[in-house]
Amino acid sequence: xxxxxxxDSEKINLGTDEDFQIYHDGANGYIxxxxxxFQIGNSGTxxxxxxxxxxxxxxxxxxxxxxxxxxxxxxxHANAKFETTASGAKFSVxxxxxxxxxxxxxxxxxxRLLNSDTTADNTVSIQLGPCxxxxxxxxxxxxxxxxxxxxxxxxxxxxxxxxxxNFVEALDISPSGDATFAGWVYGDRFxxxxxx
Length: 196
What we know:
Helix content is 0%, strand content 33%. The chain is built from no helices and 13 strands.
C-alpha cells in the first residue's frame, strides 16, 4: 500500500544534524525540534490549524487572519471558552462564576485592567450586565492627572447605575478619598447628597 513502517523508537531524522525527529516509543508519539523555531503552517484551502487531543475534538483552533480559539472538552462544549478578536479577546462561560486564581503569596494584584493612554480624564471600567446581555452598572476608574510623569498620577473611582435606560453616576470617590453620593444613603442614619 506504499506505507513505510518503523519499529518502536526508530526515528525519522530530518536536517544535517538530525535537528528534527518524529518517532514513537511504543507508548507515546514525539515530534522534537532541537534547533531554531518550530513552526506549523497551513497554506491549504481551509487556512485553519486544529490541535485535537482526541480525534474530532478541538482543543485549539487557529484561523488565518482570524481568531485563535481555546476549547474545553469539545465533545460536550461546542463553543470556544476563549477567543482572540481584532480588538482584544473574549471568553465565555456557562452557568456559574468565573474564577481567577493567583499562585503567589501575600497581597498582590490578581487582576489588572490598564489603559495605555497617559492623558488626564482617561478611564478604564468594568461593566456588569445582570440580565439579557445589557450593561446595567459600571465601576470606572478615572485619571485626574497626566500620567506621563510619576509626580502625581492621581486617580478617582466612580460607580454608575442604570435608571430608565440611562447611566447615572451614583458615587464619585476623589483621589483624596472624599465620596460624593448622587442620592440618599440609608443606614444607621440618613446622609444627604451633600455629605462626603
